[in-house]
Structure formats: C-alpha cells, structure tokens
Amino acid sequence: MDSKKHTDWTEAVRDRLEGRELKPSDALWGRIEAAAPQAGAAPKVRRLAWGGAIGVAAAAAIAAVVFLRPAGTGSSGDVDIVRNAVAPVAEATVAEPAQPAAEPAQPAAEPSLPVSRPAGTLTAYAAPTRQLLSQEPATAVPVEAADEPVQTFDVVPNEVPAQREKSDAASVKQTTAASTARPATANVPQMTMEEYIAQENAAQRRHRGFAAAVYASGMPSANITTLANDLADRAPMNDHLAYNGPTPQGGASFDSIASEVGYTTNPESLNGYEPIKYTDDPYNINGDRMNHSKPVNVGLALTLPLSDHLFLESGLYWSYLHSSSYLTDQSLHSAGIPLKFGYRFGGSGRTSLSLSAGAKTEKVVYAVRDGSRIKEPGLQLAAVGSAAVQYDIAPRLGIFLAPELSYWFTETKLPTYNTENPFNLSLKAGLNLNLGK
Amino acid sequence: MYDERQLSERCARGERQACRELYDSCAARLLALSTRYVGSQDAAEDVLQEAFIKVFSSIRSFRYRGEGSLYAWIRRIVVNRSLDWLREQKRAGAVSLDEARPVPDEGVGSSDVEVIPEDVLARMVEELPDGYRTVFNLFAIDGYSHKDIGKMLGIKEKTSSSQYFRARALLADKIKDYIKHNG
User: Do A338 and A382 belong to one domain?
Assistant: First the structure.
C-alpha cells in the first residue's frame, strides 16, 4: 500500500494507475513485426536527407571559400581555424548508421504516409522500420533487468535472458483485483510526464521561437601589416614606394615583403624597392608600415524560424576598423546588416549546432584619419557563412560561439584590413534569448 | 534496469533484438496506458501496434535527455496515437450536453482511493464518458496542463478545466458507490 500523503485524492488515483500493467496478447509483437516491413518510403529519412544535403552544401561552401583562397593573403592560422571548425560538421552530417548488409534497396517511389486509413486497419508509417526489424540476426543480448517485472513473451523463443526467467511468475501476470501493491516498476527509469513535457516545450521554444541575440566578434592577434606603397592606389599619403624588383618566388604576401624590406628609411637596403616621388604626404618617410587590425563587431541578431530546422537571420551590427602606422592613425565606424539563411541541427540535450550562409552589407558612417573626417561613400558587400554552436544555460537563454567567414566583394577607398585581405575569419560569441511563446 | 541510451542507439542501428527488448520493457505499461484512454484493451492493442511502428520508424529522431526520457517519449507517442484513435471514432473532445451536469460535492479522500483494487479503479476511469475520460487522463494522470490539453483536443482551456472537474465528480461518485457496497 502506498503510504504517500496526497493533497488531492486524484493524486492517489494517479499513483495507482500510472504504473499499471496489462499483458499484451502474444500476437501483438508479431503483428508489429509483420506490419513494419510493409512500410513505405520514410518522410523522416527524406527530411534527414534534405537536412544533411543542406548541411553538407553549407560546409562545402565554407570549405571551398577557404581552400580557394589566393595564396599569400592572410595568415595560415585563419585557414586552420576554419578547417577545424568545418570538418567535424561535414563528417557528422554525412555519417549514416550502418545498415544490415542483406537489406534490399528501397523502391524510390514507394508511398510514404497513408493518406486515409479505414478504422481498424493498420498501416505502417515509414521505411526505416523495415530496416529495423527485418534482416538483423537475432543475437541474444543480455538485459540488465533482473528486478524488472518485464513480461516474457513466446513469440521469439530463446531471446529472453536467463535473469528474466528467474523473476517471480506473479509479476508477469496481469495485476489482479486482490493486488493493492504498487506495480513493480520501481526499477524502470522514471521521468514524469510533467518533466518530459517541460523538457519538450523548452526544446521546442529553443528551436522554434523567434530569437534575439547580442554578440561581439573579432579575432585578436591577427593584424595584417602592409607596406605603405602597397596602399598607394588608395591612399595618396602613403605613396612612398614602388616595387621594381623581381617577382618573389612562390608568391609574396605583404608580410613577407615587409619582412624582406624591413622597417627602414635607407633606400639602398630596400632590396628591389626604390623610392618614388613624394606626392602629398607631409610625412615623407620611406618604408612606413601600416598595421590593420581585424574588424571588431558588436551587434544584435534576430532569428526567425521558417521550419523546425530552417531559419532566417538578420539584424544590425556596428563594426570598427582601425589602422595605424608610425605616422598615421585611422578609424572607420560602419553599420551593417546581415541576411542569412541557416539550418539548425538537433543537438543532444542543451547543445545545438547550426550552419548559415548569406550576405551582409556595410556603410561607413564615420571615418577619421589623423583627426580629419573622411568621406567614404557607397555600400560594401560581402558573402558570409558561419557555423554556430549553442549551449542553453536556461530554458530561453543560450550562449553561442560561431566562427564566421566573410569575403568582401567591394572595398573602401581607405585601406583597411578588409581591403588588404578580403577574406576575414572572425569568432563571434554572444547570448541568444528566445522570445517565442 | 536497461540503459535507455544504449537501447535507443541499438534500435536506431536496426538491431532487431534491441527493438524486441524495448517492446518487452514497456509494452505492458503502455497497453494499460492506452486502455485507460481508449476504454478497451482490443482497441488499445491496435493503438499500441501503430505506436510501436511509429516508435521504430522515428527512433533516430529521439534525443536522449536522461534516464526515463526514452520511455517518456514512447509514452507520449502512445498518448497521441490514443487521441488519434478517439478522433477517428469521433469520441474525443467535448462531451455532449446530456453528459454535462453540475459538479457535486465530491467527499472522497485519498484513503478511499487506496482501498480500491487497481483494476477496479482502472475500470472506473475507463467507464467515464469519452470526453471526460480523455481530459481526466491527460490532466490528472499524465500531467498535461489545461492549456496543452486544449491544443491537443482543439477545445478551449476553460472547457478542458470544466470537463476535468465534471470527470472527477463522476469518478468520485463511482468511488463512493463502490465503498458503500464493498467497504
């Protein structure tokens, strides 16, 4: 007899009925087994295939951008980071559980869900069951369930482990009228429906709700250095040097040229470089090097779910680009709007993974160089792709980390990190708040 | 105790033995659960058959969230299939007007419930009118909120609430009647 105190008598009813058992007819398992092979093509498999295809395509797009990157632009560390971020995603997406070797191929045009079904008839739902229940050899695997009042059935002999045979015969019978004890299901893992429903609802909110995120992105210690003359076309004040030497073998990055030349004002040590005429630069020092910091962004992202997995992401961000040399200092402040489509993979528990790709546009709203405002008309346009991992720290709140790769199709007049290296890898981190019901 | 994570993974890999183990481990409880909803064991077996086909075909989409989550997931599928069956029979949702009546004073306590044999108590629930029984099962036993029940059955939250109170009044009558004659 359950001695639990109840605040309401219906709780006692629940306790009595929740774990009740009824012995199914011996034929039921056979009916399930027989019905399963008639299943048609699986909608679930199709959805998985679509999801996998989109995921692979997004991963391939990011990988292609990385591997097609021209030699000598940017540090190799960027590429490594992207490779590391992308490879596991691609592998996880294409991996499929091994199927039994003897399984025949599924007819492609087999019907999926039954459109209508007369009452009392049973129609199987999906093809995977055919694979699940058909050709697998029935190797007995012991079940750690000595105390579990699991009923034994005679449909498949010899597959019930010995432990079960020891269980009390009374426990396999239907609960009798005289029985007042709790159903012997105490050892079966229990999760109340309230807990499960709460988890389900939380998961659905997490994946389906309209969400807003605040984030910051950047990539520290990845500045790029350019020689002043490399900026000549864009910045007359840096029009100090022209390269007239032989083409460096294997291609030359700005860094290698800078290293080759060194920071010097001595034209004789320029090794192929020679000073050109002074134009309008008040600081006429040859070999001035300019350091371009990677952009730092902060922004607000809004995510609109389009389906269980697909989503549209946009928002507004502010971007800061800083460059400096021994002689000059410039800052660009831009406002940008990204627009991306994404696919969210169901993660385990609180973790989820998403891939997204799209475009972003930026407008310089404030540019200053050595204290003077400089106009930067026009919009800048870039393609962008990212992979994000989110961990939910509360039902509606998650933290995320997202490596993001962008490629700039246009450039500003002023030299910046983006003009010198159109590929830009950054790491975005932020908080994601789900605003769904 | 079986390991739900391993069992679900083995089922997802297509191991027939694992599917059978999963079935064996919970079919009896799920049959009782479905019978409580649909009111007859024969119908409940049909429901269970469909539910297990659904389980095996969708097991790859199951996300393990701790011990008990697999059973809770299957249980939810069985509840949904039971409701589908009732809909097909046009037996879910609101009860007809002649079934509606004022809520009487219940006068039943937990101790009254505990002396009633389990199968008798189950039969009392199964004999409730379909609409009452559905709401009572969903709310009192399976822990759904009236809001969720409203969505599941396509009725208003208030309707679910009022049907629940009428269901418990009817059940209280049955309990009192049983105690009067057997107590």
Answer: yes
Decide if A339 is inside a domain. yes
From chain A, the residues in CB contact with B57 under 8 A are: 36, 39, 42, 44, 124-129, 132
Mean pLDDT within A298-307? 90
Chain B positions touching A188 (Cβ under 8 A) are 1, 25-26, 29, 71
**CA A358 to chain centroid:** 14
How high is the pLDDT of residue A206?
58
The domain tally of chain A equals: 2
Q: Mean pLDDT over residues A52-73, rounded?
A: 54
Taking the Cβ of residue B177 and every Cβ of chain A, the question of whether any pair is shorter than 8 Å is answered with: no
- Note whether residue A106 is domain-resident: no
**Shortest Cα distance from A45 to chain B (angstroms)?**
9
- Model pLDDT for residues B38-68, shown as the tens digit of each residue: 988 999 999 999 999 888 888 887 878 788 8
Higher pLDDT, A5 or B172: B172
Q: Which chain A residue has its CA at the smallest distance from B144's CA? A: A194
Residues in chain A within 8 Å Cβ distance of B55: none
CB-count exposure of residue A372 (10 Å: 0-12, 13-18, 19+): exposed
Query: How far is C-alpha A6 from the geometric centre of its chain's CA atoms?
Result: 46
Considering the domain architecture, whether residues A409 and A378 belong to the same structural domain is answered as: yes
Estimate the crossing angle of helix A27-35 against helix B16-38, to 10 degrees: 110
Residue at which a domain ends, from A264, A289, A314: A289
pLDDT at A389: 92
Distance CA B81, CA A176 (A): 27
Do B32 and A141 lie within an 8 Å CB cutoff?
Answer: no
Say what the pLDDT of residue A50 is.
Answer: 56
Domains and CATH numbers, chain B: 4-88 (1.10.1740.10), 97-182 (1.10.10.10)
Report yes or no: B34 and A107 within 8 Å, Cβ to Cβ.
no
Inter-chain CB proximity A188 and B19 less than 8 Å:
no
Q: Show the tokens assigned to A211.
A: 């969400």
Q: Read off the pLDDT of residues A400-413 as tens digits, 9 standing for 90 and up.
A: 999 999 999 998 88
Residue A111 lies in a domain: no
Range of the domain at A422: 202-224+291-434
Work out the angle between the directed axes of helices A9-17 and B157-182 (0-180°, nearest 10). Answer: 80
Q: Are residues A329 and A417 in the same domain?
A: yes
Interface of B with A in 76-95 (CB under 8 A): 76, 88-89
Which residue is it, tokens 């101790």?
Answer: B111
Contact criterion met (CB < 8 Å) for B1 and A189: yes
Q: Please check whether residues A393 and A268 belong to one and the same domain.
A: no
pTM for the whole thing? 0.43
Residues A410 and A368 reside in one and the same domain: yes
Q: Are residues A353 and A210 in the same domain?
A: yes
